[in-house]
Amino acid sequence: EEILKESHQETYFSLKFSHPNVVGLVGMGNTHPPLLLLELLDGDLYESLMDPLGIKDIFNAFTEKLNHIYVHEPSINKWEKLVASPLQHCKDLCDTIEQFKDRVKAKSELKKEADKVINQGKKYFEKRDRTQGQLWEQSHTKFLEAYASSLGIIAPLSVEGVLRITSDISHGLHYLHSLTPPLIHRDLKSPNIFLTRSLAKGAGRAEYARENVIAKLGDFGLSSMKCGPFQLQAQGKMAKINPRWTAPEILDQRRNYSIESDVYSMGL
Questions:
Q1: Which spans are transmembrane here (predicted)?
Q2: In which domain, by residue range, is 220 found?
Q3: Do 111 and 178 share a domain, yes or no?
Q4: Phi–psi pair at 194, nearest 5 degrees
Q5: What is the rounded distance in angstroms from the CA atom of residue 156 to the CA atom of residue 20?
Q6: Does residue 215 contact residue 172 with C-beta atoms inside 8 Å?
């Protein structure tokens, strides 16, 4: 019931919006709850800053398949309990490796460490012993360190890019707060800022930022068109609140919130 209510609320708000810095609704599916068809964007600001190549999901899948095979291979009599056959797991592993290579092939600063990860993963898969497993863990730790140190090269963000994103968010918030009555987002955070083009594709470069909209506000499931006490009746809704970006008056349900609550979140 709460999920349905939240979905209806987001649909209602999305139908009211028409602004270049707010994610637009392009259609709806006749489902229960209704399926919202939003404009196609290139990921959110948080992922674009922290994982611009989308390595996390590929890396986790690669690790999961290696460990999955390692754990289950000795117990041949239990293979039928798995979703896929051993042969299928081998194929999936190879597919994952190819995806992994494809993500880093154009980044010379990562290719060396990526090759080590893949080669060590293959050895781990072939021998399945503790030593190879430890070497595998060391190799992917070094890769992640190299990845983290290369983020500024992979996803450059110029001063003009920072100013453009800040300006886009400000314009989007001003639009929401200028509605009658004003709409308070209440969940403004970098994962809810969506990009028209990812930083890895050059959105943060000065020449692009000067001419194009980069950021749009989205995810209005916790939004409200009135000011007052923040009532979160459902446990699931409270789980969505991230204190890292949330104003104290929203975390404290006994206090009133207002458009200034969004300004606080933007500052963080």
A1: none
A2: 2-47+156-267
A3: no
A4: -105, 145
A5: 24
A6: yes
- 138 and 256 in a single domain? The answer is no
To the question of pTM greater than 0.70 for the whole model, the response is: yes
- 10-residue block means of pLDDT along the chain (268 residues)? 59 74 77 69 91 84 69 48 56 75 80 85 79 84 88 91 96 91 86 93 94 90 61 49 77 73 86
Same domain (yes/no): 43, 72: no
Half-sphere exposure of 134 (CA within 13 A, CB side): 3
- The CA radius of gyration of the chain, in Å to the nearest whole number, is 23
Judgement on whether residues 210 and 142 belong to the same structural domain of the protein: no
Residue 109 CA neighbour count, 13 Å, CB half: 11
> Which CATH number is 198's domain given?
1.10.510.10
Give the relative orientation of helices 108-127 and 86-104 as an angle to the nearest 10 degrees.
170
